[in-house]
Amino acid sequence: MLIAYYSRTGTTRELAMKFQEKLGADREEIETTKDRSGVIGYFICGKEATRKQAAEIKPTEKMASEYDLVVLGTPVWGWNISSPLRAYLEKNRGKFKAIAAFCTMGGSGDKKSFSEIESICGLKLLAQASFLTKDVKEDKHQGQLEEFLNNIQAG
Length: 155
Fold this sequence. Notes:
Oligomer: single chain
Mean pLDDT: 92
CATH topology: Rossmann fold
CATH architecture: 3-Layer(aba) Sandwich
Largest sheet: 6 strands, mixed
Distance between the termini: 12 Å
Number of helices: 6
Number of strands: 6
């Protein structure tokens, strides 16, 4: 199992690390070629996501095709998946055997994001989970986390 994710602020990374620990999975952080920190980075990210553009990403180390399941993680930007995750999905289209996904968000956009992932990959998600950023920061997400892990293990 591989957990492949993008995290601009660290929230999605925090969850990916927890999933890695609980599932004993490999982990791959998707990295961009350009700095996306700060206010300017925030606006670039939102613009790309709204336009459904793929960001330029660095080459990944792990091969998605070598895993029975890839768990995908993304922040939701403008009710869409992040542009770095979009790039990763497009690069690996046709290489996934099975997928699950989780997202972090300020309020909404998860359903559309999960639909986008399925559409790009041409696969149905085995499991999906949405986490509000504030709940992750306040450590109020344990129930959702366990439910997602159980759904992955049952799938």
